[in-house]
Amino acid sequence: MWWKNAVFYEIYLASFADSNGDGIGDIDGVREKLPYLKEAGIDALWLTPFYPSPRVDNGYDVSDYCAVDPQYGCLENFQSLLEEAHALSIKVIIDVVFNHTSTAHPWFIESSASLESAKRDWYIWRDQPTNWESFFGGSAWKLDQRTNQYYYHSFAEEQADLNWRNPEVKQAIYDVLSFWLAIGVDGFRFDVINNLTVSDTFVDNPIGADGKQVHLYDVNQPGVMAVLKEMNQWLKTVDPDIFTVAEISSDQLSVISSYVEEAGFDTAFNFNLGSIEDLDLKLLTHEFQEMNARNYLPTLFFNSHDMSRSWNRLAREDRGTYELLSVFLLINRGVPFLFQGEEQGVGDYLPSHISEIRDIQAKNKYYEQCLFVETQQALLFANEVNRDRSRGMIPWGASQQTGWIGSSPINPEGELISSVYQELIRLRKAEGPFQVVTNIQLENGCIRYQVEHLSVVLNFSDLSVKQNISKKVQTIYGKGVLSEDRQWVQVPPKSCWIGKEEQ
Ligand code: GLC
Ligand code: CA
Asked: Where does the record place the Glycosyl hydrolase family 13 catalytic domain (predicted)?
């Protein structure tokens, strides 16, 4: 399967590359960057939603699944992008948001019009709400005055959840998938796909010891696996080469993995590792070991459009640490997903005023906090959860306008970082595919592992570390120095070493 050896690159369209000077990234901007991406060694792109949308959640509130939002271009532009990418042997997967639609979607407009609407049952309507909370804060139920019933929205109130119990909804979604398959996309990233509402028992969620709601009855419900398994089986009969990756809203490996093992996705995002809050080597090693105890290929990433960038969050702006993380991502078993700008060491963009915040989650946090604290303090709290941090415009240079959002900071060491990524991707292609990882260990601040015929030592500590070597190897990457008798290697602080077994 093509995706097993591919290096993916996530493009958050609005902030990637702007081709027409309106300050908003667009599809032609991606086209113009294809040679750059090819040169960087990228094999596949994941494009975040580009569908028509009121953009309450910046495109994750879709009002037409089978079209392109004019701010990004048109369907012909998308088709040209696909053709040009394919001509360069770059695959393209698209983001599909099937848990909810925008309330501006014709389906919802029809559903909400009356109790007798033919599409009434396409969404989740109730006379009484439960205590379920929205993932963006506040109640997940909104009273609609027209029919005096509540509809369910697990995210913003403008994102109404579809009712997956209804076979018509399922069929409508299959039609959307067929539409994009006919256009020629190579796969799909399924947004918060474990949130689908498939049961009709609505029980209040319990409150945990920390006072926060435990999302027991609104995610991972009985029945969701069967629905998704059927969809995946159908997709594979249409085209076995189609790649499917699930976004599961959990950082628990057992939950994440169950959607690959039971529902048949090719893989799923490993938030258990990718979104860790700081560089906790014990946790990292543990999750890495657990991921490799499973049969399927995990995903490997430290960045996305939903979290603070690893340059700040994990590397704390240290280039040595950043390089170690990139070795871990690329010289390893798994499917790496880079996020735009990561290969240039782009850092977090931090709004300095509420008027600059674009992320709905951060806006909600700000206004909620304003009831209790001064605005400056509220801004700090908002920025702690602000997903704009990773969504600043990519600083390509003077030609890139900023418009809808400010620019991400340029990393002065960006060129060096890019050449490291490029070299590692080259090495991955030359030495891979990497299917087996063994001997994963953490010792003295060093993570080491064996991937196929390569020994990898990542020294995250501030001290030089000596590591014994059991096989006849030669150095192929890194600052580690092999002893003359090749019995051990000395790895300087915050550096790595990769040795290759002699044939
Ligand atoms: C996913 C997306 C996120 C979006 C949410 C709701 O988590 O990655 O950006 O806000 O789903 O669609
Ligand atoms: Ca534009």
From this structure: 10-391
Whether ligand 1 lies within 6 angstroms of the CB of 301 is answered as no
Q: Which amino acid is at 13?
A: L
Which ligand ends up closest to the CA of 95? 1
Q: For 350-392, what is each residue's pLDDT tens digit?
A: 999 999 999 999 999 999 999 999 999 999 999 999 999 999 9
Domain at 107-152: CATH architecture: Alpha-Beta Complex (3.90)
10 lines ligand 1 (CB under 6 A): no
Residue nearest atom 7 of ligand 1, based on CA coordinates = 192
137-185 pLDDT per residue, tens: 999 999 999 999 999 999 999 999 999 999 999 999 999 999 999 999 9
Cβ 97 under 6 angstroms from ligand 1: yes
CA 330 – CA 302 distance, rounded (Å) = 12
Q: Ligand 1 pocket test: pick from 99, 192, 194 the residue with the most ligand atoms within 8 Å of its Cβ.
A: 192
Does ligand 1 lie within 6 Å of residue 57's CB atom? yes
Q: What pLDDT score does 471 carry?
A: 84
Whether 400 has a pLDDT exceeding 70, the answer reads no
Identify which of 306, 339, 363 to mutate to test ligand 1's pocket (most ligand atoms within 8 A of the CB).
306
CA distance 171 to 168: 5
- State the distance from the centre of ligand 1 to the C-alpha of 96, rounded, in angstroms: 10
Instruction: State which H helix or E strand residue 57 sits in.
Output: none
The predicted model scores a pTM of: 0.97
Q: Once rounded to an integer, what is the mean pLDDT over residues 447-462?
A: 97
- Which amino acid is present at 81? L
Instruction: Write down the domain spans for the chain.
Output: 2-99+166-348+411-431, 107-152, 437-501
How do residues 123-141 score in pLDDT, each as one tens digit? Answer: 999 999 999 999 999 999 9
DSSP state string for 98-139: -SEEETTSHHHHHHHH-TT-TTGGGB-EESS--SPBPTTSSB
Ligand 1 in reach of 266 Cβ (< 6 A): no
Question: For domain 437-501, which architecture applies?
Answer: Sandwich (2.60)
Best residue among 152, 155, 299 to mutate for probing ligand 1, ranked by most atoms within 8 Å of CB: 155
CATH superfamily of 2-99+166-348+411-431: Glycosidases (3.20.20.80)
Considering the chain, what is the average pLDDT of its residues? 97
- The Cα–Cα gap between 381 and 386 comes to 9
